[in-house]
Amino acid sequence: MPETQTLTSTCLADQLERGFRGGAWHGPAVMELLTGVDGPLAQWRPYPTSHSMAELAGHLAYWLRDAERQIVGAPHLQGGPGSDWGPAVMDSEAAWQAVCAALEEAHGRLRTAVLQVEESRFDEARSGSDTTIRGLLMGTLQHNAYHAGQIALLRKLAEAAGGRPS
């Protein structure tokens, strides 16, 4: 039996939590990296066309909501191409805090959905896709780790540069 078939809802939810909040094998988790980041630091970018930590946080929230949507069978998320990146500039600290709150909420909802999935559904094909729910969740874990690495690099660069938006 392939190793992926032994991943239960509890194990997958635990891995989502580790990659999001802490205890991940790959290094700092998403929220560990965003702790202490304020609005100006979150908007910093090394050059005009790169993403900021704020954009990455919004992007992660979007795809966590989408994964939850697919698990519970909810309608597609609204928005056109590129809507998963959100606004490039936020106008206040409150706007940054709202992005962080949306990220926390999206993670919590996905984790809850994963814990409620019957084990037999994990190998179900997703509508319009050739991957399973288990594959969706494994991809979500990889996506979170990838962007956590980007956030880690951006934060180091931003702090070294004084954290002023460019």
Automatic annotation (TrEMBL):
InterPro entries: DinB-like, DinB/YfiT-like. Signal peptide: none annotated. Residues 30-151 form the DinB-like domain. It comes from the Bacteria. This is DinB-like domain-containing protein. It comes from Geothrix oryzae.
